[in-house]
Amino acid sequence: MISGYVRNDMHYLALATFRCMLMRQQLCNSGDVLSLDSSTVATVMPSLTLLRHGKEMHCFALKRGFDRSNVFVATSLLHMYGELGSIECAAKQFKRVEEKNVAVWTAMLTAYARHGRNKDCFRLFDEMRLQEGVTPNPLTFMGVLIACTHAGLVEEALDCFKCMTQDYGITPDMHHYAAMVDVLGRAGKLKEALEFIVTMPVKPTAPVWGSLMAASALHHDFKLGHEVAKIVMKMEPENPGNFVFLHNMMAQDGRWDDVSVSLVYYQRRCVIEKKLLCFSKETDLINKLITPWCDFAEDVFPEALLSVLRGGEQYGIRSDVFKGF
Q1: Whole-angstrom distance between the N-terminal and C-terminal Cα of the chain?
Q2: Residues 171-227 pLDDT 10s
Q3: With 199 labelled, which of 19, 80, 136, 162 sits at a CA distance of 20 to 30 A?
Q4: Sign of the C-alpha dihedral, residues 71, 61, 116, 217?
Q5: What are the angstrom distances between the C-alpha of 235 and each of 85, 129, 210, 241?
Q6: Containing H/E element for 153?
Q7: Are 121 and 90 spatial neighbours (Cβ–Cβ below 8 Å)?
């Protein structure tokens, strides 16, 4: 159930189900009925969106000894701290892991890369390969390319891409190609980025062209940006983000007549889809954000879960949290 909630972005239900399991285990006074093992902790970890909840889950894993001995829990903790911006906590957790495999190294390396800690990312990459002898995987190289993108290190990115393909025999996927185009584009090497796309051994996808389109707008090469935007919109005609990007580029280029014409065209094209497809999503979002818990709790939570939540005060849960129940 927790895994299903997480996969469908119902994170609040995943966390509530985990807490329900914890309370039921205490009620039964036995770990045999609802055993909260390491797989349960690793499964619920992606649903955490607040650092406070993440630290609470880390304390639970710490008491059970999962954070050091279990690779899946350790990796989930590193991902969680990286996503929530607590790099120092991630670094402390990384040092605690007893046996570091490639997933643990990659999680820490990627966390450094996404938060601009480029030197730490490169240091970790060299340490895992040269000192520890751990073979990097495609996700590892993706993290290094992200670091190169943030730091504007074109030569280092090219060396990394070459190392991946020649030294380790890893076939790049579209994420690697898009990252390389992003590195070249952000550095202002738009011609090299276009040549890189044209010489790709596989057909480039919309995200690859989208990286070049964003770089063209960043460096005010609107002629190239318009041509690339046409390609992207042909590949993803239903993606409104591509139209917005093209619309903004025309505005930056001073082509206000084209802006007005394209805006009217897009509004006429999408008005029917807006009425048919978006209304249910918008009303569902309004219900989740505005409707009081007591109005729709019984429709969302199963009755067994509600009965446990109502009795949560004896376990330290504030009474006002489930006031509507």
Answers
A1: 22
A2: 999 999 999 999 999 998 999 999 999 999 999 999 999 999 989 888 888 888 888
A3: 136
A4: positive
A5: 34, 39, 11, 13
A6: none
A7: no
CB 246 within 8 A of CB 223: no
What is the Cα–Cα distance from 140 to 146, expressed in whole angstroms?
Answer: 10
Residue 12 identity: Y
Closest to 225 measured CA to CA, from 203, 201, 204, 247: 247
Q: Is 249 exposed, middle or buried (0-12, 13-18, 19+ CB in 10 A)?
A: buried
Burial of 133 from C-beta contacts in 10 A (0-12 / 13-18 / 19+):
exposed
Separation between Cα atoms, residue 159 and residue 150, nearest integer Å: 16
The whole-model pTM stands at: 0.72
Length of the chain: 325
Type of residue at 88: E
Q: Which two tokens stand for residue 108?
A: 């820490």
From CA 12, how far away is CA 16, in angstroms rounded? 6
The encoded tokens of residue 260 equal: 């007005």
Give the residue carrying structure tokens 């889809």.
273
93-140 pLDDT, tens digit per residue, is 999 888 899 999 999 999 999 998 999 999 999 999 988 889 999 999
Nearest to 124 by CA among 138, 143, 139: 143
User: Quick check: helix, strand or coil at residue 60?
Assistant: helix
